[in-house]
Amino acid sequence: MKRIIPLLLLFCVLSVMPARAKVLRFGLTGGINVTKPSGDHWKADNENGWYAGVKTKISMPVVGLGLDLGVTYSMEKVSITDPDNGLEAKDKIYYVSVPLNLRYDLSLPAIGYILTPYIALGPQLNYACNDFKTDWENDSFSTKRMLWRLNLGAGAMLFNHLEVGYRYGIPLGNTIEWKDMEKSNLESGIHQIGLTYYF
After folding, report:
1. DSSP-derived 3-state class of residue 149
2. In terms of DSSP H, where are the helices of the chain?
3. 26 vs 4, 29, 89, 165, CA distance in Å?
4. pLDDT digit string, tens, across residues 21-50
């Protein structure tokens, strides 16, 4: 929560600034993701997925600082193997995600309209819409409904409309939690490459 408060305060400040001092834009976003699970007990494979949704960006053109807020629907595949008995499981988890990123746009003289690089940092809340399922007889685990990640990203705005970006979501909690204390819970970071078109 302490990480989110400064971003929310900045968002409020930017929201009440005069219109001539800020730029507010809306767009459609989507792309591919690669889930990167990890756990001490499990052998986990990277899996491909996708995401799509809407995004808004508010920025101060003079200093380059701003925020972007999105709402996306995503599919993440999770594939794990229990090395003790060789059991394998693979399933899809669908999330409604809300990223809120602080960003800095680097304005380049003469070519700023064509190419504007940016970096971004911020939290992302993910709500799981379904449970991870297996056909194991004793699968005593549950999918974590609310999953937080910390996004680190970079990219570029092209021709003032098309944004190309990459980000990595660092897990701040478990994706799957086992009731068996001898087994490690599973975390999942995520690589995302996407496009956003701003109107």
Report:
1. strand
2. 4-16
3. 22, 10, 39, 16
4. 458 899 999 999 998 877 766 666 778 899
